[in-house]
Amino acid sequence: MQQLSQVAPTCVPTYRLIPSRFPPVELYEPVCQPRDWDGTKRVEAMTNPRLREMATGLGLLHPDDRGRVTQNWLVAPFTYPDPEPSQFSDGSFGYSLVADTKKGALLEAVRRRELFLSSTEQGATRLEMRMLKMPVHSELLCQCEVNEPDDWQRSHAMVRSLRDAGSYGFWLPKREGLGRLAVVLRPTAFQTAVQAEHYAFIWNGKSIEAIYDFSNGETLDPNELKVLANAQAA
């Protein structure tokens, strides 16, 4: 990973997709009666790291961010770190990977879901996802180049040093037609997140073959996004 350079513009709309249901339902609706929801939530608060972080401030967030973020959508990526190493973390801390275009966010969501579903050998199914609009209002550093996937150790060290120093994160190189990705290291980098479109990812057992947009009834081809990304990689 090359040396990070000057600051990028602030107040940029960014997007991320998370698993969901359409139409949305109360979390505990499928498993218990409404009269039991309060008790169930109290039990969850004892074991859920996101809720413990938000209630006590004793967790993985940067000390300056504790008690300052109330939206679950914003806190979750930092309190549920991926236990498996990724390009930007060794698994001991979380970050939020967001895109400044909806196409870019869809592509990253498709890639991550395909990797997970392939590793679990999941049969054909449908995944419902919601897009979040999460404006970045803090200063993110510019990033000119990213290491190859087999050189993650240096990336991990650099990202950890930025995180320890209190950095809000950094932008990755722009991709024509797909925009930029940002690696955000603190939830306070974001303004209030709002819900955008709902989608259904159609998994055929080997790949996500289609994306259905609930908002307009259109079906998108994820391969068109992959073609864009592969053309730039070449």
- Termini gap: 19 Å
Quickly give the structural class.
alpha+beta
Whole-number mean pLDDT: 84
Q: Give the amount of beta strand, in percent.
A: 15-25%
Poorly predicted ranges: none
Task: Provide the succession of SSEs.
Answer: EHHHEHEHEEEEEH
Major sheet: size, sense and barrel closure? 5 strands, antiparallel
- Number of structurally distinct domains: 1
Task: State the share of residues found in helices, binned by percent.
Answer: 25-40%
Name the shape in a single word: globular
The strand order across the widest sheet is 1-3-6-7-8
Compute the number of strand runs.
Answer: 8
Separate helix tally: 6
Using only CA atoms, what is the Rg?
18 Å
Can you offer a commentary on this structure?
The chain contains six helices and eight strands; from the N terminus they run βαααβαβαβββββα. With 234 residues, the chain is of the alpha+beta class. It has one domain. α2 packs across α3.
Question: Keywords, please?
Answer:
single chain, 234 residues, alpha+beta, five-stranded antiparallel beta sheet, three-stranded antiparallel beta sheet, 8 strands, 18% strand, globular
